[in-house]
Amino acid sequence: MARRKSVNLFWPIMVAVLVVGGCMNLVDSVFGDEEDTPVQAVPVPSPGPLPNLLQSSLNLAKSQLESRGVRLVAEGIGGRDNCFQDGYCFVYRMTPKAGTVVKPGDKVHVWFVTVPEWGFYKEHRRMPKVVGWSEDRAEKFFDTVSEAVETEEKEVASVPEGESRVIAQSPKAGAPLRVGQKIKLVIGYNYDWSTSAGNDGGVDIDVHHDSHESRFCSRHWWC
Question: What's the pLDDT tens digit per position in 101-115?
């Protein structure tokens, strides 16, 4: 009687399992449910006290407020809202004050000066007496903080003919001069005179200062 051969099915079964398992993994990777992938939530800044930004660079102030989701409103002494180089400008005033609890979306207003402007106010902590100065001298003296200087022109007979001089100032001489403080000068002028044309027939030409714009102001773009 012939003997029946036994068939070993172990290895064929294992190969089939591996093939089927690999295919299932491939299907899951292509068509798997996206909801199974955990999504990390972006942390939302929470309300907290406002840091002290005084004497900080404008660049540092921006980064500190942005990390809290707070909006920054910056203003220079001439009313400009930006600094050509943030690390070159420093905060001298802020509102609300440091320690105030702010939340994301709130607005913080800061005032800034450049390094040269800061140096001027540190050197001149009190307003000098400039009444009697020529307009050119005043212009040179206040050149660094010219954006904080407002001028008004007035025709007066007390000023020598053909000249312009400071006849009034604010703040008054000796008063404390705070960083970023506005300065107002009244420029008196007496430019009415006649000049002869000489050999061209002797026609007199009257020269009047009709523009009523101070030369101190006319040389700067912000006037």
Answer: 999 999 999 999 999
